[in-house]
Amino acid sequence: MPSRKLPEPFATLQPFVDAWALGSEQERFRKLHTTTIEDLRAFYDAVLPRLREALAYLDQWTIGELPEDARTLYDLAMTFAETAHPVDLQWKDVDFPDAYPWDRFEFRTVSAGA
């Protein structure tokens, strides 16, 4: 299956798409806890300098109107936002010993108005 594509101005981030442009909170949570801090830092270092530009680019549309390539960029930015804290906080790993096991979390979809 071919990789999803980014908008042309963000083509340098394409190597991260398959692993990091994740479309759900559950996928992003799982990625955070199953990657090494070194891989997370490489992703962080590549995306952070482009993040402000990416958000400005995405601001052209509402979330429901995103073209396919912009949706890929959105998913990449969401993964960044939900996985950046170990690097921001200078953790040595993505988890702490004796913390509640991440794989025991359950994700449930809540409908609007519920």
Q: Would you write up a description of this structure?
A:
Helix 2 (25-34) crosses helix 4 and helix 3 (37-58) crosses helix 4. This protein is mostly helical and 114 residues long. 49% of the residues lie in helices and 0% in strands. The chain is globular, with a radius of gyration of 15 Å.
Secondary-structure map:
Elements: H1 17-20, H2 25-34, H3 37-58, H4 68-83, H5 85-88
Helix pairs in contact: 2-4, 3-4
- Give the assembly state of these chains: single chain
**Helical content (DSSP H or I, runs of 4+):** 40-55%
Q: How much beta, percentage-wise?
A: under 5%
- Could you report the average pLDDT, rounded to the nearest whole number? 87
The string of secondary-structure elements, in order, is HHHHH
Q: Whole-number radius of gyration?
A: 15 Å
Residue stretches low in confidence (pLDDT < 50, at least 5 long) are: none
Globally, the shape reads: globular
Total beta strands: 0
End-to-end distance: 37 Å
Q: What can be said about the biggest beta sheet?
A: none
- Indicate the structural class: mainly alpha
Helix tally? 5
Summary of the model, kept short:
The chain is mostly helical and 114 residues long. Helices cover 49% and strands 0% of the residues.
List keywords for this structure.
5 helices, mainly alpha, 49% helix, 114 residues
